[in-house]
Model the fold of this input.
Amino acid sequence: MNRSEQDELKYTENMIYTNFSNYSAWHNRSVLLSTLLEKKAEGFLSKENVLPEEYEFIHQAIFTDPDDQSGWFYHLWLLDQTVKVDSPLLVTSWPAHGSDVLLVVDRFHKVCGLSPFTTLHSDSGSFPMVLYFNQSVEGVSSSTVTVESGSNKSEDIIWKPLSVNNSQAAQVWVAHLTFPTSELNSSVEVSVGHSEGITSTRGFQYSYPSKFSFKVHVQPIERDSSQGSVAESVLWREENFKVYEARSDESIPIVFFDQLRIRNDPEPTASNWRAEALAKEIECFRELLSLMDCKIGKLTLARLLMAYDAMSSCANKLVHSEEVLELYSDLMKLDPSHYQYYKDEHCLVLLQEMISNRESLLKHCFQYTDPVSSTIHNPICLRLNNLSLSRMGAFEKLLWVQILDLSHNELQSIEGLEAMQLLSCLSLRNNKLRSFTALDPLRKLKSLRVLDISYNQIGEHSIDTTRYLCSSPLSHSVGSEWNKDETVISDGALIDYWEAFFIFKELNLKQLDIAGNAIADEKFKSILVKVMPTLKRLDGELLG
Done:
């Protein structure tokens, strides 16, 4: 029988009223609504008119039988439709809008007036510029992103996607700007999406052109051979880190992100109805939880509260974070079978809370000092150690970080870390990393010089379930990367350690700590020395 989509939608309604537990009817309803909204069929021109009625409809099922999961799945779909923006948006960038970057270049003068948050060192006079979108996009190029700067011409700038699987679509894109010492002060203006071409993986165009600008001050310096330009060796000891005391008038990264958050919503009312819908749902589920102790109700409320905070005008202020953290803590006790999921979500909220305002961020900002070896400048180290973190996130707010301490946590993955293009020193000591494939994002960090992955679980597990997510000599994704003739280790060793080879051959490390992992025997260490000719220290010992 050939029925219209509207008739099919009415049929799902009848089936659901007959039986609220009809999973197929709920699923089919979501598919039909998606199609009708996409077509802008009569009566389905906008989500604003359709979704509020669907919320009222689903409440009947949820409040009739809160233990029936069929309706909850549909509610989750409605929430996704409410908060999801089809067109891609630029969320953050580095350098941030309105920031002043001090670029230290080895040359003539004595350095002065350094700000540890915005000071970068570069022997070549270049640094990465990063664009962070709200979803994966393709088409970022000199045609769709223009850069106005004296020494940098848009047509010469090459944009690359930060994708670990060699895809041409990515949420984060990077290009490098170069500033010669002859140009001590430069203004840079970046325009994104003023020409068509940036699209999401679902085919939606970047519809809201945006601009941001920053200044670059080049500081040539003179140093003797006893000084390092940046930290090429780090002692991750408590006595080497001192809490950074920022001046009251000093700009810190959280201020930059307040300025940078580019909200190009051409229809303010579009955000208003979304916020109103979320507020009504929050009130509804608080009422439900006042009547009964419902696991999925707690989870839904936590999601609603975080979505509401993210949509608020001051997205850096998480008004409901404490309530959300308490909800996830309760869920870890109530539903131990899904403990790890709740723990991961709890960690993401905790991270957002810690770095979303000046006071909380500064509690985790330390300045690294080493009385033995002097360096020209010591950037801020963000210390997120000893927090029981099982998952990392909020990378869009961490693009400024050059030294990161994630030691003594419970991380099994560092997915997303590739966005932190300024990162030069990283400690992952005492985590739960099980394999080298978990380190795949490090391949994109071209500034990384110091890495501590000691005392993890690498080599303990005979079966690595993530092994084939990493490029191998047999995978098509390697393509032109793989050139057997260029390898400096034997075929046997390459077969045994190819995951490590493909991770470390991309890096220019000066210092590596790997002790305390099952794989870290003398044979493996000798292979690392061959793969990384730049390496100067291995497990604290100087290499000859």
